[in-house]
Amino acid sequence: MSQVNVVTILRSWRQKSLATPDARREYSLAPALGMLAAAITLGLVSLLPAQSSQAAAPVSCPPNWNIVSSPNPRTYHYLNAVEVISSNDVWAVGEYYNENNYTPDTGLTMHWNGLQWSVVPIPPAGQRIRLTGVSAVASNDVWAVGLYYPGGAYEAIAMHWDGTAWTIVPTPTRPGGTELNAVVALASNDVWAVGANDGFHSTIAMHWNGQQWSFVSTPNGGNFSDDNVLEAVTAVSPTDIWAVGYIYPKGGTQRTLAIHWNGSQWTLVNTPNPGNYVRSLHGVTATTSNDVWAVGQYSYNLGETYIPLFLHWNGTAWSHVPGPDFPDYSILRAVQAVSANDIWAVGTNSPGNFGPFETLIMHWDGTAWTRVFSPNGFRDFSRLYGVAAVSSDEVWAVGNSDKAGFPYTSDSLILRHLCPQPSPTVTPTGTITPPTSTATHTATTAPTGTPSATAIPSNTAVSTATSVATGTSTSISTPSATLTQVSTATSVPPTVTQLASTSTPLPTSTSTPCTITFSDVPSTDTFYTNIRCLACMGIVSGYSDNTFRPNNQVTRGQLAKMVSNSAGFSEPVSGQTFEDVPPTQTFYEFIERLTVRGYMTGYVCGGVGEPCLGRPYFRSFANATRGQTSKIVANAANFTEPPVGQTFQDVPSTHTFYEFIQRLTTRNVMGGYECGGAFEPCVGPENKPYFRPGNDVTRGQSSKIVANAFFPGCNP
Questions:
Q1: CA distance 145 to 158
Q2: What pLDDT, in 10s, does the model give residues 394-403?
Q3: CA 620 to chain centre
C-alpha cells in the first residue's frame, strides 16, 4: 500500500456541539457561512505557472468523473474520507442516522468489492459516532478514526478492521474532549492519527505502536486562546510525515498550519498565508520528501471570493502556487497524489456563500492546476470531502448531497474517475449480488397501455450530473437529445446461444388523460415527455418522495425490464440462461424474454466472483451503457435495415454497436454531443459529433430512447 495516501477530512467547524438535529444541520450547512466554494466556467487554467520543473505527463484518456451507486438506508448520510487498497477493495467512512435518532452505531463504513458498495456494520459506542479518516496497511488491517459522544464532550475514537469485523480500540483521553480528523497507516505497528483537543485549543497526534494508542507531543501555531486544529496527515516514510490544518485566533482570522515529524519529534513549519482572511488547510499529500502538496482556501476580504489554496513543499520551504482565480466561493477539502504530475484535489464551490453548493474537482498535470468536470448528486447541495487513488487510471472521491428544503435529507455521494474504461470481457471482482438498498419495485406483467405508476424499474438512489465534461457539449439532434455525462465503459458482450426472433405486437400509447408528474421533472425538462409517456403506461415509475431522478444510472436488469415491457413481451419463461439470474431473481423473466430472442447476451464465466458452473453471467446490477442500450432497443424494436454512413466520430462502421446506434440515430431516437470538447476534437470539414457509447445510460436517457423507439409521438 502506498504511503502517500491522504486520508483527510473534517470540517473546520467541528468544535460546535452536534447533539441535536438543528445543530447537525447547522454543521452540514456551515459552508453557507462563507467557507464554501462556487461554480466556475469549466476548463479554466492557472494564470500563473506553478513552481515545478516537471513536464506535464501525457493524459491517456479524458478525466471523466461519474457517480457510482451507493446505499442510503437512513435519512442522513455523510462520507468524509475514502481509502483505496485495490480496485476491488475500497473503504469510505462517515456518519449516518435517522431523523431525531442518534443511535450508538451512527458511524458509517462502506466497502466496495469491485462491483458494488455496501454498508458494513460497526460496534456501537456512546450516543453517536462520526468517522472522519480511514487508512489501510492491507485488506485485513484498516484503521478508521473520528469522534464519538459519550456525554459531556466529544472523545476521539479509533476502529480497526481485521478482515472480518470492525472493533473499537481504546484511545487516550484529555480534559476538554478530543477529536481525530485523519489517519495514515504506514505499517501494522506504525499508525498516526491527528486532530485537536477542543478544551485546550491545541493540536493532538496519536501513535499506534502495534499494542496501544498514545499521545505524542505536538506544537501549536497560536496562543492558548487560539484554536489549533490538524485536519489531514500524510506520510512519505516513518521519519517524514506531514500534518496540516489551521489556527483560528480568538477574534481574528484563520491562518494555515503545518507540522512535520522527523522520526523523533513534531516541529512547526512556516507556511504562506495569501490574502488576509480565512486561510486554512484541509488536505495534504506527498510523492517524495521534496514534493508535498496541501490544499484549502483563502480570501482577500471578508465576504468576497474564496479561492482554492494550493501550497507546495519543495524540500526546503512551503510556497503558494496560484491556481485558477474563481469568481465565487471555493474550498478544497482533500488532495491525493498519484505521481508528481498527476494529483487530484476535491471540495465544494458555490456562486454565493448560501449555495447552491456543487462538487469541485481540480487536477495538477505537472504544470498547472485546472478544474475538471464533476457531477453532482440528486439533492440540492453536493460536496466532496475525500479522495484516494488506485492508480492514475482509477480515482475515487466521496462526500454527500443534501436536500435544501424540509424534510431535510442527505445522500452519500461517491464519484469515480475510471480510465481506461473496462470491457465487459473483463469480469468485475466481488460477489455479484444486488445492493441491499436497491429500490426494485417492479411490475410482474407486461404493460397493457393503461396508465399506471406501479412499475418502478428504479435503481439505488444515486444521481449524476446534468452537465458534460467541457461545459459546452450540447445535443446535435432533436431538442430532447441533450445527454448527460455519465461513467464510461466499453461494452462488447460475448456471444451466447440465441434463438430466432419472434414477432410480438407492440403496445400502443394510451390516449387516456394522465395526471402523473414528478417533482424533479418539470415540463421544461429535456426528458419530460418521454418520462411521462412511459410512466403513464406503467412501464416506469418514480420514488416514494414523488421524484423520478432522471440522472440516476440504469442497470442491465432494469433496462431489460423496460425494453421487454415496452416491446410487449409477456410469454411465460422457464429455464435459466445465466448463472447469476435464477428464476427467483427480480429481473429473471424480462432478461430471459430478451435473451431467448437474441436481444441481450452475457459474459463468459471465469472471472473473480464468477466461477464456471456451466452458465455465463449476465450482471444484472452492472450499469448499462449507451451502446448496450442502443443494441437492445434496436433489436427489440425490430429495426433491421442496413445502416448507412457514419454519424458519430467515435462510432465508425467497425464499432461493436455501430449498426444499432446508426439505426436509432437515423430514426431520431437519440442524438450525441458536439465535437470540440476535451479529447473529442473536431475532425475534418464534417466536424462529426460524438456519441460516447461507453457512457452509462441514465433513467432520463433510457426513457427517451425507449419511448422514441417504441412509442414515437407519444405525448400523454
A1: 4
A2: 999 999 998 8
A3: 21
Q: Which of 572, 559, 558, 566 is nearest to 539 (CA)?
A: 566
Task: Say how many C-beta atoms besides its own lie within 10 A of residue 687's C-beta.
Answer: 13
Q: Which residue from 122, 119, 178 is spatially nearest to 150, judged by alpha carbons? A: 178
Q: Which cell is 245 given? A: 490544518
Retrieve residue 411's grid coordinates.
445522500
Question: What is the DSSP code string of 538-549?
Answer: TS----TTS---
Phi, psi torsion values for 715, nearest 5 degrees: -150, 75
Q: Return the beta strands (E) in 249-380 as ranges.
A: 255-261, 266-268, 277-288, 291-299, 306-313, 318-320, 329-339, 342-350, 358-364, 369-372
d(CA 252, CA 264): 33
Residue type, 462: V
Q: Which tens digit of pLDDT belongs to each residue from 333-365?
A: 999 999 999 999 999 998 765 567 899 999 999
- Peptide bond between residue 356 and the one before it cis (omega within 30 degrees of 0): yes
Q: How far apart are alpha carbons 36 and 21 in whole angstroms?
A: 21
Model-level pTM? 0.56
C-alpha Rg value of the chain to the nearest Å? 26
Residue type, 376: N
The alpha carbon of 103 is separated from its chain's Cα centroid by a whole number of angstroms, namely: 26
Helix (H), strand (E), coil (C) string for 86-136: ECCEEEEEEEEEECCECCCCCEEEEEECCCCEEECCCCCCCCCEEEEEEEE
Strand partners, 288: 291
**Closest to 333 measured CA to CA, from 6, 3, 4:** 6
Do residues 202 and 216 lie in contact, with contact meaning Cβ atoms separated by under 8 Å? Answer: no
pLDDT tens digits, one per residue of 607-621: 767 889 989 999 888
Helices 556-566 and 626-636 cross at an angle (nearest 10°) of 20
Local structure of residue 270 (DSSP, 8 states): -
State CA 299 to chain mean position distance.
Answer: 28
Peptide bond into 62 cis (omega under 30): no
Q: Cβ distance 117 to 99 under 8 Å?
A: no
| 294-339 pLDDT tens trace | 999 998 877 678 899 999 999 999 999 999 877 678 999 999 999 9
Contact of 228 with 288, CB cutoff 8 Å:
no
**What residue ranges in 38-75 does DSSP mark as E strands?**
65-67
Report H helices in 537-666: 556-566, 588-596, 626-636, 658-666
Distance CA 551, CA 553 (A): 6
Are the C-beta atoms of residues 86 and 142 closer than 8 Å to each other?
Answer: no
Q: Cα separation of 49 and 456, whole Å?
A: 51
Could you tell me whether strands 291-299 and 277-288 are parallel, antiparallel, or unpaired per DSSP bridges? antiparallel
Give the three-class secondary structure for 661. helix
